[in-house]
UniProtKB/TrEMBL annotation, chain A:
This is Hydrogenase large subunit. Fe cation binds at C64, C452. It comes from Natronincola peptidivorans. Keywords: Iron, Magnesium, Metal-binding, Nickel, Oxidoreductase. Its main location: other. InterPro entries: Ni-dep_hyd_lsu, Ni-dep_hyd_lsu_Ni_BS, NiFe-Hase_large, NiFe/NiFeSe_hydrgnase_LSU. Belongs to the [NiFe]/[NiFeSe] hydrogenase large subunit family. Heterodimer of a large and a small subunit. Mg(2+) binds at E42, I401, H455. Ni(2+) binds at C61, C64, C449.
Automatic annotation (TrEMBL), chain B:
This is Hydrogenase small subunit. [4Fe-4S] cluster 2 binds at H217, C220, C240, C246. It is found in: Cell envelope. Residues 47-193 form the NADH:ubiquinone oxidoreductase-like 20kDa subunit domain.
Amino acid sequence: MGNKITINPITRISGFLEIQVEVEENQIINAKSSGMLFRGFEKILRGRPPLDAIYFTERICGICSTAHSMGSTLALEDLLGIRPNENDKMIRDFMHGCEFLQNHLRHFYQYTLPDFARGPEIQPLYNVTHNDYRLPEKFNRELAENYIESLQYSRLAHEMLAVLGGKAPHTHGIFVGGVTVNLDASKWIKVKSILASIKEFVGGRMIPDAYTIAEYYPDYFENGVGYKNLMTYGVFDTYLEKDLFYVAPQVFIHGELQEFDPEKITENIHRAWYEARQIEQRPTEATVEENVYKEKAYSWIKAPRYDGYPMEVGPLARMWLSGDYTNGISTMDRTIARVLEARKIIGIMEGFLERMQPKPAQQGQYKFSGEARGKGLIDTTRGALGHWVATENEGIQNYEIITPSSWNLSPEDSEGVKGVVEEALMGTTIEDLKNPVEIGRIVRSFDPCVSCATHVISEGYSPVQIRIV
Amino acid sequence: MNEIPSNCPMISSKTITARRMMDLAIEKIENTSIHKINLIWLEATGCAGNIISLLNAENPDIIYLLDQMVTLKYNNSLMAAEGAGAFQQFLDTLETEFILVVEGAVATKDDGLYTVIARYQGELVTAMEAVKMAGEKAKYVVTVGTCASYGGPSAARPNPSQSVSVPQFLNKEVIRVPGCPSHPDWAIGTIANLIAFGMPELDPQSRPIIFYGITIHDQCTRRSYFNNGIFATKLGEPECMFKLGCRGPVTRTDCPVRQWNGYVNWPIEDNTPCIGCAQERFPDGMSPFVRY
């Protein structure tokens, strides 16, 4: 019989995650990913004023809150039939870019780097729990120094966000209609100068540091592969200008590109701690109740599927689908794609800065009546994020969120199909069963955010019926 | 309008700013025999946004905090160790003198199983158990953020996880440092006070007066608009947002004078109302966040 290895907590992520694997002859033969936090935001949102969803859903996640202000704002704009003007949209997308940079910097230096290099010699950043550190002392020292140096730049990414959005995390400036900031030259030049300093750090340190790690851990191009099914909802994709465009919505299944169809998204609760009338539901009709004692369930995360397939989402999926990075799909490719994406996004943000004008924000008064629904699907730091909202009179009737980490960290579904991270762990060789460092490295390459992935559930209500008038 | 008496105790306590407090603490650490106290920064039922906010700190920044002020023994987001080895560090710290910081509320439903922070010797360890274990032994307990301090968004109705605040859960004095998230200066300033001067002066809700002594409204840059009855009608406008639902009049923080993220901005300066994120009744009692 195999050995069972459990890692809980998987530290250096946002939220609480347990990974259990069974190992036979040093190979992983079974893997389970369990989200261990539940708050029930969707239930909490019911009955609240629809506009509250923007600042409320930000509170799902401290590290990627701006993602949720984007998702909720897009869903409400869809519902209200509102479109921001081009200038405000560029400012808003710039703010979303700030969130990408903050996340990618922190994920690479604070979360990923200690897997491969000994961190700064400060408790508890310095790792002593295993011995698979391969970097020569000189490189290790440089990376540890850059760990500290990077803190300044992730902080500055949030400072840019605050210049335009009031504060971060949980920024205020992204709102229905666009933004709330009245851009002026002083704010513009401030964020422009900060972006220039971040660009220098990303290009001069972060990207070389990722390649340094890759050089000494070439075996990590071979593990953590997974299904190779990739998906993006698209981001920075509403612009015709080439330097502002990143990636359009699309899916990649069994090596074939397909058009993205949001109607093919379902959520399966077979192994999740929920009960419902149907085991598989669409996000517009999700009706579940939590049951932590459910037999054979092992996670608070539901299993989202696209046309029945578990889909990998995140920087590698985007960079692959945009054609910016096609080296491979693996643990190390995910990390490299993430740092290269930081540079790509800086380029797009520079394009916004060239075009945005110091004009007042175009805001209105937004009122809700009758029954309506909207959806906001957009790629954010960790991948494809969907918000689905239904309103009735002046309140939220139903709210459903499928986060990127739900896609990546999902449990097995009722067809016996494993989640993306679970599959990526399968077959992995564990060199030292007492120090199974491979597991944490593979899991972290997906940048898990369990605060996001397990926020969820909806009330046991039937879906809103939309009347076409 | 309230008149501000010249002998107002809040004003006098405000003359010692957080920065000054930190400087004094730093000086004291450098010049005296103060030893670095251990710190557990425990993430419970929440969004982990307060540790992210802490990473935004500057002068002192997180490295100064960890290098010069405290010895951080356990934090889920930052620590290099993982799994049982990580949780062992938590357990070992309980036998020492330490400060416990909690961010996130305490989920109590189904024996706390809605938030599991570790597995130890095969058993699940809930955030509820961890807060209890560490809370009972800590020299000081500090709640950073509104969820830990008052329940916050995690306990918003109908409160599916039956989350409660740390002071509700622990039968012990708790210093509240609310905010959603808490400003890094509020958290580090409170820790500075504890290590250099002991207990800070607290208000009746156990918040340090240096940060939470005065309402946003009293120090608001748009106060003259309010006094003259000039109000914004939608976001993006420069006037007082009282009629848009601004919660500045009931929210006690120093946001208007301190500002956020490199001290560059704050929500009202960004033409959005204060939503009362540091107050006891946030978010339920602060809804709607925006009204027209």
